[in-house]
Fold each of these.
Amino acid sequence: MVLYRRNRVAGGTYFFTVTLKNRGSTLLVDHINPLRAAFRAVKHAYPFRIDALVILPEHLHAIWTLPPEDDDYSGRWRAIKAMFTRSLAANGHRMERNPKGEYDLWQRRFWEHTLRDGEDLRRHIEYVHFNPVKHSYVTGVIDWPYSTFHRYVRLGVYPRDWAGESMVVAGAEWGE
């Protein structure tokens, strides 16, 4: 078995990409309430701050800050993925199983990047919020309902029309 080395910084702020195995799926938005419930339950049991989040049909991007003295983001992701999967199974959603008999809903790994400074954080928050436009789900960031962008607008951080025409060119420069 390959041992994946991840950067772990207690109290760190991290950017994540987490993906369903079936990249053509729409399960995350079709079952947004069980996904939200999984996030709430895990946040309650193992606190962390969600700095930015966007849920797309088959993947999500998140920025979290962990509490001081805590670097276990992997355990949190494992718990969120498991809780969401069990919720779908309990509600009769049919899912493939792998040879070990486990539900085969999620890609086994996730992408993680430790954010280095305020500029790195700002760029990644913008990437998270712009992602639905990048994938052509909407033409305006404000139009995607499953995003913390709406919280940022309520707090006055961004105007409702943030990332209009001028951001489309910049968005093309942001790799995934």
Note: Residues 1 and 15 are 25 Å apart (CA to CA).
Amino acid sequence: MTQQQEQAELCGLIPEENDPGFVAQHLSAYAFVQPRIVGQRVLEVGFGDGYGMAYLAKAARELVGVDIAPGNVPRAQAKYPAPNLTFQQFDGLRLPFSEGEFDAVFAFQVIEHIPQLQLIPWLTEIRRVLKEGGHFYLSTLNLEHAQKPGQPYQKLVYHEKEFTAPELTALLGQVFEKVTLFGLHPTLKHRFFRRLKRWGILVKGYFNRMGVGDFVVTRSRVRRAIDLYAICEK
């Protein structure tokens, strides 16, 4: 199998192969929704490795995950064999579920991979499988944070479209009745240790132990956030 074929078969963040801080940043989206999906039937679009669904297994009544990469299904099934987790290979544009089947849907760090012409159809399909009054939870990088003043910027080659906060709100508002935006930020402690690191002070121990508690989600300063979070209501 070529490297290109292998990448097509498997995709997504693998916690064991990444920096603890990077993993904690991504896991923070799941921590954000955890208290909101207790006892619910939930769908994840783009589950990747499956670590996020496993994190939520004790909160949700049932979690169903779909992913376009065929290799992600057996990998997730082997790593996370919880009885209320189901992993399936499907394209998010054609979900194999009836209308209004789920209390909640989430897609974390996925929307930036969707071709621009498919964004509205993709979001509309997610809305279709949500119950009335259900919620769609989304996370993506914040383009305004990624772009550094005075420095050239080029989006990642595997990203189709990266969003600023106003762009994301406008897009989601075309499909959902109510959109509330949040931002992911480092905690004061996290910022303090980052400053020490820039000064050349050895703080490796802190960064090797980072978790979701080193990030905070707020509705203020959204345009300065690391990542953008959205709660969309049907």
Note: The chain has one domain: 3-9+18-185+217-233.
